[in-house]
# Entry
Amino acid sequence: MRVYNFSAGPAALPESVLKEVQAELLDYQGTGCSIMEHSHRSKTFIDVAETAEKDLRELLNINDDYAVLFLQGGATGQFSFIPQNICTTDQNTDYIITGQWSKKAAAQAKAFVKVNVAADSAGTTFTSIPERSTWNLSDNAEYVHICSNETVHGVEFSETPDVGDKILIADMSSNILSRPFDISKYGIVYAGAQKNIGPAGLTIVIIRKDLMEREGQSISPVMHYKTMADAGSMSNTPPTFAWYVAGKVFKWIKANGGVDGMEKVNAAKSGLLYSTIDASNFYSNPVDVSARSRMNIPFTLAKPELDAQFLEEAGKAGLSNLKGHRSVGGMRASIYNPMTLEGVQSLVDFMLAFEKKHG
Ligand SMILES: *Cc1c(COP(=O)(O)O)cnc(C)c1O
# Structure
């Protein structure tokens, strides 16, 4: 039996995608071997790679001004790749800190570039997004970095902040493809795949081509965006299997109304869960309503001594991986694109029954 999997990442994948992968696993389209066993330079894999890029471009309206890279190294790798690639060590950058991931991004960038923390919601234990008017942006920053959805704290930008003519860079690891955004407002968007794209091991970087021309710092040439783009993300062997599965997820999104279709379902799913939490005196979520994430929903029980029992009974009801992040405690339901409304309804039914019994 498959469970409703609320894991923050690696996370649930669409069941239909898993079935397709299963059906093709031993013999990919009559080639007599698995896609995992094909050379990344073979026509078979190049077709897979190019189709995935084409579909992603279509889903996010990415035009030719941008390169799309399929890399390794995780979103974490990008925390240092970005400043190394596009800045010299004496240049300034602005970071907006709204949770654990943007905090890590800023901390890592400090080794390679000057970092000004232009806004920081640590004072509210990351339960809000500082008003745009309070951001202390530097005049000469090369870019402004945000994390569009904080996976641990459940805080999400509901729209792209206006940073004037500054280059905006976003870590979209946990909400890419969950709602539309205008790529032309960004210089770089990056995302680890294991939340909303596919299996772990793949990192997607969407970068405005003029930024790839920057010399940056003296790093290994194969780690330079321009080199990687010129090589079609194949300066070294790319994560072929993850790339292939991601391509299937893109097809699945296209078949389900595209990013607009995802947004509708995500609004319904998160609305259902938040309204249940807000109507209850037993469950609570600390995040400002305007900054609440549609993807990661942390909540606590009025009786934390029941946490273990909640998780155990939820597990028995087929609801898995609801334990909150160690730094926040309580529970967290991660409800990325593949989580169905039915799955969230099932969680809500369980929560109401648990509250009735123990609340
Ligand atoms: C998971 C996550 C990361 C880290 O991703 P890795 O692929 O493990 O490096 C970074 N940023 C956000 C927002 C995340 O959710």
Remarks:
- The chain has a mean pLDDT of 97.
- Residues 80 and 108 are 6 Å apart (CA to CA).
- The two ends are 30 Å apart (CA to CA).
- The pocket of pyridoxal-5'-phosphate is lined by residues 9, 74-76, 101, 147, 151, 171, 173-174, 192, 195 (CB under 6 Å).
